[in-house]
């Protein structure tokens, strides 16, 4: 996969000098290459936050270079978050990343990752919206979204991009395409929870190469 260049309206440093040195306790990854097309793999739970319509359709989809997990259709609008959660995961301190590529959506495009998800109403998220060029960090508590940080990050919506978070206790860092962008002290949701993926409203997005490390 080709690396993409981001035009950032921020001053940044190479990501390596900002990643902390933690011990990796466990690690897992998903590339979905062995999954059956047009199915939802076992162990993944589709859900939504603030939804008033049926769930978005998550399934394995074909891409020019392999298989992905994707939202292939969504009837949702507004602030509804479409979620796909790894139902057996329970992590608090982690380093988690996923690749994404926007595939459609009039109201919203792009998407992101979620972690420390206790349920579809309580979780952290980091997401990129190509339509306004914003990378957002926030959390959902009792079904209400709270924005922590938002910065302008422009990139080609039709290319693959990687969002990564590192969250250890209250130290939270966000990277995009290997570039360190956000640092925050945050521990509102302190308990272990599920990891997963998210889009908003009618966004149709492909995801791939998910990687998670449990830190200690």
Protein described:
It contains no helices and 16 strands. It has 216 residues and is mainly β. It has one domain (44-215): Exo-inulinase, domain 1 (Jelly Rolls, Sandwich). It has an eight-stranded antiparallel sheet, with no helix packed on it. Strands 2, 4, 5, 7, 12, 13, 14 and 16 form an eight-stranded antiparallel sheet that branches. The chain is globular and about 40 Å long. The two termini are 31 Å apart. Residues 1-14 have low confidence and may be disordered.
- CATH C-level label: Mainly Beta
Q: Main sheet: which strands, in order across?
A: 1-11-10-9-8-15-6-3
Question: Low-confidence spans: pLDDT under 50, at least 5 residues?
Answer: 1-14
Percent helix: under 10%
What fraction of the residues are assigned to beta strands by DSSP?
over 45%
Quick one: how many beta strands? 16
Number of domains: 1
CATH topology: Jelly Rolls
CATH architecture: Sandwich
Average pLDDT number: 92
Task: Give the class from helix and strand content and strand pairing.
Answer: mainly beta
Furnish the topology, listing elements before pairings.
Blueprint: E1 7-8, E2 24-30, E3 44-49, E4 57-63, E5 66-73, E6 81-86, E7 94-104, E8 111-119, E9 122-129, E10 134-141, E11 144-154, E12 161-168, E13 171-176, E14 179-185, E15 194-200, E16 204-215
Antiparallel strand pairs: 1-11, 2-16, 3-6, 4-5, 5-16, 6-15, 7-12, 7-16, 8-9, 8-15, 9-10, 10-11, 12-13, 13-14
